TrEMBL record:
The lineage of its organism: Bacteria, Bacillati, Bacillota, Bacilli, Bacillales. Pathway: Phospholipid metabolism; phosphatidylglycerol biosynthesis; phosphatidylglycerol from CDP-diacylglycerol: step 1/2; Lipid metabolism. It is a multi-pass membrane protein. The keyword Magnesium does not apply. One of its GO terms (molecular function) is CDP-diacylglycerol-glycerol-3-phosphate 3-phosphatidyltransferase activity. Its main location: membrane. This is CDP-diacylglycerol--glycerol-3-phosphate 3-phosphatidyltransferase. It comes from Paenibacillus catalpae.
Amino acid sequence: MNLANKITLARIILVPIIMVFLLVNIDIKPLEFGDDYSITYNQIIAAIIFIIAASTDGLDGYIARKNKIVTNLGKLLDPLADKLLVAAVLISLVQMDKLAAWMAIVIISREFAVTGLRQIALLEGSVMAASKWGKWKTAVQITMIISLLLNNFPFSFIDFPFDEIVSWIAVLITVYSGFDYFFKNKHLIPVQ
């Protein structure tokens, strides 16, 4: 169990903690700014923990590659940790009525589909590298989640629906990046 794998495990451990803050109703008066903006302390804490967890995504891989400590366990846990983090928060946002269920389903379905394709690639002895669209997808999804967790802060002060716009962009880039992975790796899909 090296440092990179410990960071990945920490990301997995943070998932249920984030969900507790998002889904357990603690009856404390929300933080309010003027008449138009209010946010629960739970959401603020969950957003901070999510940002910390999401920021470890690249860190564990960087440490593993730099120190030449890439392991099979790390190859398995890293994408699992990413999927768990995003899926858990998306499902929580649906429960909180902050995200349309169909958007969460599209995003989570793409993650499962590409993960399945990666598994097929591994069985064939090859590794699917992350594409630029996959990296954009991750960045936009994280931006979307943070904006939804923070109730569109600071854009709500100027009445700009950034959270809605970035949600649509996240869905579109997610779908496109999924098609891109499948198109570039269609040789892995047995058609008979």
